[in-house]
């Protein structure tokens, strides 16, 4: 079991070198014990686990399909067995894909909803059940998308699934806060915080230009926002854009 003095953070979707992994390393640098989550990226998760351990932080990797209620419940139980507590959950696990409006299928809709919406709910409920039993409570940060309010074309299944997260966040804040007022739930809506691996220089330039601050590819900004939401004890039910102003700006606007 871990040092009971160290807070414990579980970050879903953190095995691969994406935003969740950056959040995990950020919290590790701040003294958290880290529970990495992966589904199929075991090799990346083990590599990350070992690298985090090198800095003197307790870290373990847990496998689960977030769309499976039983697997998520077992993951949360495994975190509790390993570390003795759970103080922070961040739900970065997600899928994303492009499909035209006319071609989207029921199967694609179900898959996106299962992973992005149900996966968030299952993880938050499992973590919340642990947190409500702790005198100190805990903090949950869900991860949505800035563009649910300004959806672009050919991502119907994705936007339907992500569009449910603000309501889910407020619902979780209400339900868990009723059981323990020290359990808080907030949401982050990221913008272009990490370039796709196959992004061309032209696309990168467009993503930068689409922000007010003329910057992008900055996953550490999401990690800092997570830390702020976790540390601010008077915030719950909040949805925070972390997008350089992208949600209120289009290139060419005055």
From TrEMBL:
| Keyword Oxidoreductase in annotation | yes
Segments spanning the bilayer are none
Any keyword Oxidoreductase? yes
Q: What Gene3D superfamilies does the database record attribute to this sequence?
A: NAD(P)-binding Rossmann-like Domain
EC identifiers of the protein: 1.3.1.104
Keywords, sorted A to Z: Oxidoreductase
Please list the GO terms describing molecular function.
enoyl-[acyl-carrier-protein] reductase (NADPH) activity
Q: Name one Pfam family in it.
A: adh_short_C2
Of which family is this protein a member?
Belongs to the short-chain dehydrogenases/reductases (SDR) family.
Protein name in UniProt: Enoyl-[acyl-carrier-protein] reductase [NADPH] FabL
